[in-house]
């Protein structure tokens, strides 16, 4: 069984080759185009076509994609909180202390396993495709594409900066400036293989932050990413002397929260109809309670923002 997608070439795109149209307009990856070519799944005006054929306005491109036959992970019953869903994507509010996808010795109990079960109960098959990852102990929004075409389109948005991720964090101490940008390369830690560090030979990494509230020995920050390096927020905040509260890898333990106080609060991207979408995840209870403690320690008479 195959899914048939039909596209009518507009005047704007006449003169492109078939390959350019499928890659740049329909946002299929190079690998996907190779697969479609091997299986002779691309047709123009009802006939087989080669990739370098020039298009004219009103040509009809048809792509026959094989139906998904696997989730890529084992479906497993478990609770998930859906923040948004349409025909292309689904956004889940990931709880802390949970992996996004099976890794190493962990093959079950992940968000991907539970999402596969959710799809299974609705008698649909979508390979589990997270567009980004969150650390085990980080909570909040995570976006999954339902098909390869959507995945390629959203990956391009990430590359172009159109897919934006905003986090809420509680950090030790308070940055001097109300707003700041951290531009420091991140690479492998020279001594610990499972860690990252700011190193001259690392990959470019840019993090922006701004105060939401401050307390005597802490700050509640809004943080946005311009790049997506492993552990980027945690490494950068520790680098400027304000590690995420409770971060045992890059900071220190906290008596009041059992994980790093980091939450993926908001996702923004462009939907399939070219309309902007925004999804938010409310701050989890453990971070609310932590901030209430921080505020009370600073001024017992103050009211929390929550």
UniProtKB/TrEMBL annotation:
<protein>
    <recommendedName>
        <fullName>Pseudouridine synthase</fullName>
        <ecNumber>5.4.99.-</ecNumber>
    </recommendedName>
</protein>
<comment type="similarity">
    <text>Belongs to the pseudouridine synthase RluA family.</text>
</comment>
<keyword id="KW-0413">Isomerase</keyword>
<dbReference type="Pfam" id="PF00849">
    <property type="entry name" value="PseudoU_synth_2"/>
</dbReference>
<dbReference type="InterPro" id="IPR006224">
    <property type="entry name" value="PsdUridine_synth_RluA-like_CS"/>
</dbReference>
<dbReference type="InterPro" id="IPR006225">
    <property type="entry name" value="PsdUridine_synth_RluC/D"/>
</dbReference>
<dbReference type="InterPro" id="IPR050188">
    <property type="entry name" value="RluA_PseudoU_synthase"/>
</dbReference>
<feature type="domain" description="Pseudouridine synthase RsuA/RluA-like">
    <location>
        <begin position="88"/>
        <end position="238"/>
    </location>
</feature>
<comment type="function">
    <text>Responsible for synthesis of pseudouridine from uracil.</text>
</comment>
<dbReference type="InterPro" id="IPR006145">
    <property type="entry name" value="PsdUridine_synth_RsuA/RluA"/>
</dbReference>
<dbReference type="InterPro" id="IPR020103">
    <property type="entry name" value="PsdUridine_synth_cat_dom_sf"/>
</dbReference>
